[in-house]
Amino acid sequence: MARTLLLGLFSVDVLLKSNLTGGVNKVNPSAERRQPLDPKKLKALLEAVVQQHPGAKIPDIQTAINKRICELRHQEKKKTMDS
């Protein structure tokens, strides 16, 4: 559910330039720091998922969000390389 809501709340362009908290790139610490996702939208997303799925844990939802963002970046990189 979180993965679907993510694309409803944020554009792909925003997701490609962001990560959950705006932290440093772990693969390349010298790379430009990504912007954090809008905290109000993120909070609303987390609350909606927990309300719909009471057993869901926030860290698991956050992991799913990060994975989806990584998948989008991978897809975009693949598109660029194929062109």
UniProtKB/TrEMBL annotation:
<dbReference type="InterPro" id="IPR018379">
    <property type="entry name" value="BEN_domain"/>
</dbReference>
<feature type="domain" description="BEN">
    <location>
        <begin position="1"/>
        <end position="76"/>
    </location>
</feature>
<keyword id="KW-0732">Signal</keyword>
<dbReference type="Pfam" id="PF10523">
    <property type="entry name" value="BEN"/>
</dbReference>
<protein>
    <recommendedName>
        <fullName>BEN domain-containing protein</fullName>
    </recommendedName>
</protein>
<feature type="signal peptide">
    <location>
        <begin position="1"/>
        <end position="16"/>
    </location>
</feature>
